[in-house]
Design goal:
The structure holds 2 protein chains of 2 kinds.
Chain A lengths: L19 H20 L5 H19 L7 H32 L7 H16 L2 H12 L3 H25 L3 H9 L4 H35 L7 H10 L3 H29 L1
Chain B lengths: L1 H17 L4 H18 L11 H29 L10 H14 L2 H12 L3 H25 L3 H9 L4 H35 L7 H10 L3 H29 L1
Helix pairs in contact in B: 3-4, 3-6, 3-8, 3-9, 4-6, 5-6, 6-8, 7-8, 8-9, 8-10, 9-10
The chains are: A mainly alpha, B mainly alpha.
């Protein structure tokens, strides 16, 4: 019996954690966590049985959507959502461009940089829904609160990505403008703007897409739009109208995703 | 010309949108804000003792939801990627449709539907998070699969490996880092989303928020929002650390 000169079996080496002990400890702690987490979920089978029937009604409603009987509510909600999305995206971008420039380390002095980063961080940390709750409390129910919420959320998104983009620009072009003695405004206009403009347009289209999706949600807390219509139809158990609304939402999101993809390719 | 159209459209949309706005409330907003702030301050710290359990629920919703989402998204991603899909004509479009459809419905809407079907509670929240995660994880993962290096796959194929072995040894090791990164990223997003699912009855800390809002207990609302913010910041930190360690 001689030992083979080469190994006849091969085991894939572990990829993430190399030490055996840590792997065991981690596996056990994950198991314990999963056990604790799953056991804290209470499942009410009685309630589920009622739910199955409702689920069937919902699927049936989704397959046979009813666009007509609530069409006035649906179209009003849809128009509110779309106008809200458009205005808030525009206003959000107009506000977020100066903030984005201010939050770029290579363009702004230190104190402006800190302020703008602060604004961006606040806007990104607060959930849209929570912001909407506050704006509804302050400005009353309806689309105006929704408009403010979406505009506020847009600032954080565009501001952050624009600032990162400006920080990544090709310094040589900025250097060239500086060498000609250009002012700060000329620097932004001739060196920075041409480099980031395509990205900014792409981001704006992407944000339009996101804002429409969000506008379908913030209506649940009273900020207007198609979400409010959806919420009403669900609480009335009108699953066929709800199905119609969902199909419209999916359709518009798909359409805007497709269009924005095309437009972005066109711009680049 | 282009800008003129944009401006015109903006004015038109603005008029449509603000048609039914009660401007009285808007002009009133600064005083209302000051009033709200004075009533909400200071946060009611003693309420914290009632928040630990919902917070634990919220984290569970996010984690279990992410796991469930991963379990459903991984097969879909392999079906959707053009280099691993078994059939380009039927299964690929189907998988792509599932990915887009689950992504275009917000988790709050999923929760709204599931609560009316399954009843209020954690389960509806977990499923809502899971469904919403499918589209996100599926999309990023199938893009990662499509970007894999073909040479390694060919090397495995040359040894006479079966279809399953090609996946296991040729493609999976290449997408593993992306997979971990995506999962942790989604978990981080899910923590944010699960914090508000309770608003529509899907359990977690949002339920506490809803209850406090209903009785206009602003100091409690403020405390809950502070807790949510802390959790979000913490989870973002954890996910950034983990992603940094992996990639």
């Amino acid at each position: 019996m001689t030992q083979a000169d080469f190994p006849t079996t091969w085991r894939r080496p572990p990829q993430l954690i190399k030490t055996r002990q840590w792997r065991i400890i981690l596996t056990i702690s994950v198991m314990v966590y999963l056990f604790l987490a799953i056991s804290s979920v209470e499942i009410d089978w009685q309630r589920m049985l009622i739910g199955v029937e409702r689920g069937q009604r919902f699927v049936a409603g989704f397959l046979q959507p009813d666009f007509t009987s609530r069409w006035r509510d649906i179209s009003a909600g849809l128009i509110e959502s779309l106008t809200m999305t458009f205005t808030s995206t525009i206003v959000g971008i107009i506000i977020s461009v100066p903030i984005g420039i201010g939050a770029a380390r290579n363009l702004a002095p230190r104190w402006i940089y800190m302020i703008c980063r602060g604004i961006i961080a606040t806007s990104r940390a607060l959930q849209e829904i929570i912001v909407a709750i506050f704006f509804v409390a302050l400005f009353g129910f309806g689309a105006f609160a929704g408009f403010l919420t979406l505009a506020f959320a847009t600032i954080g998104f565009i501001g952050k990505l624009l600032a990162e983009d400006i920080e990544d620009i090709d310094e040589a072009q900025a250097e060239a403008i500086r060498a000609t003695g250009g002012s700060w405004l000329q620097l932004v206009n001739y060196a920075v703007q041409p480099q980031v403009m395509p990205r900014l347009i792409g981001l704006s289209l992407y944000r339009f897409d996101i804002n429409f999706r969000e506008s379908a949600v913030i209506g649940i807390v009273g900020a207007g739009g198609i979400g409010a219509t959806l919420n009403t139809s669900l609480s009335r158990y009108e699953y066929d109208s709800a199905g119609a609304i969902l199909i419209i939402i999916i359709g518009i999101v798909m359409l805007s995703e497709y269009l924005s993809g095309h437009l972005r390719r066109f711009v680049n | 010309m282009f800008w003129l159209i944009i401006v015109a459209l903006f004015v038109f949309c603005w008029n449509m949108m603000t048609e039914r706005t009660m401007w009285v409330f808007v002009y009133d907003a600064p005083t209302a804000a000051a009033d709200l702030a004075s009533r909400a301050w200071p946060p009611r710290w003693s309420y914290m003792s009632q928040l630990w359990a919902p917070l634990w629920d919220t984290i569970n919703i996010a984690t279990l939801g992410t796991l469930l989402g991963i379990i459903m998204a991984v097969p879909l991603a392999f079906l959707a990627a053009s280099n691993t899909t078994p059939s380009r004509l039927i299964l690929r479009p189907f998988a792509l449709f599932c990915i887009v459809a689950t992504r275009s419905i917000n988790s709050l809407i999923w929760a709204l539907l599931l609560v009316s079907i399954l009843g209020p509670g954690l389960l509806a929240g977990i499923l809502a998070i899971a469904f919403r995660s499918i589209g996100f994880i599926g999309k990023l993962l199938y893009e990662a699969i499509e970007e894999t290096d073909i040479n390694q796959v060919e090397a495995i194929t040359a040894t006479g490996a079966s279809q399953g072995q090609i996946l296991n040894y040729g493609i999976v090791p290449q997408v593993m880092p992306a997979f971990y990164g995506i999962s942790v990223f989604r978990w981080d997003i899910n923590i944010r989303e699960s914090a508000i699912l309770g608003l529509v009855g899907a359990g977690g800390i949002g339920a506490q928020l809803q209850a406090s809002l209903n009785v206009l207990a602003w100091p409690q609302v403020l405390l809950i929002i502070l807790v949510i913010l802390a959790t979000v910041v913490l989870s973002e930190w954890v996910s950034a650390k983990v992603r940094h360690a992996i990639i």
